[in-house]
Specification:
single chain; 282 residues; five-stranded antiparallel sheet; four-stranded antiparallel sheet; alpha+beta; GMP Synthetase, Chain A, domain 3
Length: 282
Amino acid sequence: MDPTSQSTAPPTPAAAQITRITFKPAGKLYEFDPGALRLMAGDLVVVETERGGALGTVADPKASSAAAPGTRAPKVLRKADGRDLARHEANLQKEHDARRLCLARIRDRRMAMKLVQVEYHFDASKAVFYFCAEGRVDFRELVRDLAQTLHTRIEMKQIGARDETKILGGVGPCGRELCCSTWLREFQAVSVKMAKEQGLSLNPSKLSGMCGRLKCCLRYEYDTYLELRRGLPRVGARVTSVKGDGEVVRQNVLRQTAIVRRADDGVEFEVTLEDLVEKRAD
C-alpha cells in the first residue's frame, strides 16, 4: 500500500426529504414521502397507511427524516381532490349518525362508559368508537348491535382522561384554549417534583388541569428553573456575603437571589450572586 495515499470515507448520504403530516388538530406528526408532489403547509392530501388511504393535512412540507437510514417512508398518493373531500364530508355525517346511535344503545343498556368520539376510516371500512370508563367494560353485545346496524367493522377503544380532554377541548384556568387541543402534539410525563422546583403551592386544585391530571404547563419552564437554580447556593448552605454571614433559607429563582438568615442576630436579608463572597452552587 502506498503510504502517501489517503483513504477517504464514503460520502454520507443526504437526509431524505420528507413531508410531515397530521390527521387531527394538534395531532402527532407522521413522515411521508411526497415524491414529485409540490406541497405547502395546510394542503389536504391522501396518503397510504397500514389501514389503507387516509386524508391528512400537511404540517411541514419539507423536513429531514428522523427515521433510521434505509427506512422507507409511506407515500403521499395525491393532493385531495373534490371526490376525496366529498368522501370526507360523507364520513363526517356517518360519524355523527353513528355517535347518536351508540349513545342511544349505551343508555338502553345502562353501560358504565362515556362515548367521546367516533372516527371512520377514510374508506369507511371501519368505525372506531373512543370511550372512557372507570374499569373494564363488556361491550361485545354493543359491538354486534353497531356492526349489524352500521354495516361496517367496529372497534371500541378505551382512552384516558388526558386523551378525552385533548379531543373535546376547552378553556383552561389561564383563560386560553387548552394547550393539548390546540398545539401540544404529544403528552410528556409531568410530576409533582416539577411544581416543587418552581416553588408552586402543592394544592391539587391549583396543579390539576381540566382533565384532572397534573397540568402539562408544569413542564414548560421546568428545565429553565433547573438551569437557573444551579447558579444559586442551595437552601441550608452556609454563605459569606457583604451583608453578613449566614444560612440560605430560601431561593428566588427568577430574581436570581437568595434569602439568608444572618448567624449573629437571625435577621433575614436578600442577596444577589454579586453580594456573595463565596458562591456555592447546589
